[in-house]
Automatic annotation (TrEMBL):
Transmembrane segments: none
The species this protein was found in: Thalassospira aquimaris
Superkingdom of the source species: Bacteria
Protein name as catalogued: NAD-dependent epimerase/dehydratase family protein
Xref: Pfam families: Epimerase
Length: 329
């Protein structure tokens, strides 16, 4: 039986990845600071541990796993990443995890290691025009990410690819673009835009207001979790190092995203634009390279993923309110 290790296995993407690998017949070990928030883990072995500690990494990586997925990081949505209040923690914590992980994998002669980078590493100067962002993989340099989170991601990309060159490893790197879906963080400050908007719409009364940071004309693309996992496993099992974009190329404004969720909910809402952390003005996944190289790219429409995500978030909102029955539209 093949074996896999998923770090960050208590997080949104990690928990879904564990379930997928189990369906594929893997024996799976997961590790995180916590168990998944919204479901029981499907992992055969779940280790509660801090990967900033070298001893924990050595204990977790006690064998030669067939596949290692390094998803563990200190991260969150715009309200966590772009305020500047968490920069030191984000850089120190994530860099320490990656340094420990690649060293522990090397010692066990593990070849196939996947590292989840982020579109936040792309230069801010290429993302000033919301209608024409440049996020092709070869646009990464000269480097100028708009956040310390992005700088750490860029450093760690280079770390894993350097271990490929110097130690004959076969690490693979993907740049994720705004992954979303059910069972993700939906409140508390670390949630990303789709979950945050689904929550705000679910909480709002028809005809009421919904608060949006900025003018709402900033653009993004959002990738549903199932397609993220497909791209992730395809890349790790391919002969290509990357980095590759793993994201949707269906670009929308935040205002359009609000309209889509409002339509799904059957509510008419007024957008109240307020100051808040925004990130770059425009970002969209450029999928030409992954399509040409792997013969695959995400294709599911955004609205399909939003329908599933809104239904799940609405259920969480009702549970928090103590409501047991579906809301009437």
């Amino acid at each position: 039986m093949k074996t896999a290790l998923v770090t960050g296995g208590g997080g949104f993407i990690g928990a879904h990845l564990v379930s997928r690998l189990k369906r594929e017949g893997f024996w799976v070990r997961a590790v995180d600071l916590k168990y998944p928030d919204f479901s029981e883990t499907d992992a055969d072995d779940f280790v509660i541990g801090d990967l900033r500690d070298q001893a924990v990494c050595s204990r977790v990586i006690d064998r030669r796993f067939d596949e290692v997925y390094q998803l563990a990081a200190d991260m969150g949505g715009a309200g966590y990443i772009f305020t500047g209040e968490h920069d030191a923690d984000v850089m120190h914590n994530s860099a320490t995890i990656n340094l420990n992980m690649v060293d522990a994998c090397l010692k066990r002669n593990i070849k196939h290691v996947f590292y989840s980078s982020s579109a936040c590493m792309y230069p801010a100067y290429n993302q000033e025009d919301p209608n024409n962002p440049n996020c092709a993989e070869d646009s990464a340099y000269p480097a100028a990410p708009d956040s310390e989170y992005g700088w750490e991601k860029l450093f760690s990309e280079r770390l894993y690819l350097a271990f490929n060159r110097n130690h004959n490893m076969e690490c693979r790197v993907a740049r994720y673009h705004n992954i979303f879906g059910p069972q993700g963080t939906w409140e508390g400050g670390k949630e990303k835009a789709p979950a945050a908007i689904c929550r705000k719409v679910a909480e709002a009364q028809g005809g009421g207001d919904i608060e949006i940071w900025g003018d709402g004309n900033q653009t993004r693309s959002f990738l549903y979790i199932d397609e993220c996992l497909e791209g992730t496993t395809r890349l790790l099992r391919s002969p290509y190092n990357g980095p590759f974009n793993v994201g949707s190329d269906e670009m929308v404004t935040i205002n359009q995203l609000v309209d889509m969720v409002s339509h799904i909910a059957g509510k008419k809402l007024h957008k109240n634009h307020i100051p808040g952390p925004l990130g770059v003005r425009g970002r969209n996944s450029d999928n030409r390279l992954i399509a040409e190289t792997l013969g695959w790219k995400p294709s599911s429409p955004l609205v399909k993923g939003l329908e599933k995500t809104y239904a799940w978030v609405e259920e969480q909102v009702r549970r928090k309110r103590g409501e047991n029955q579906p809301s009437t539209k």
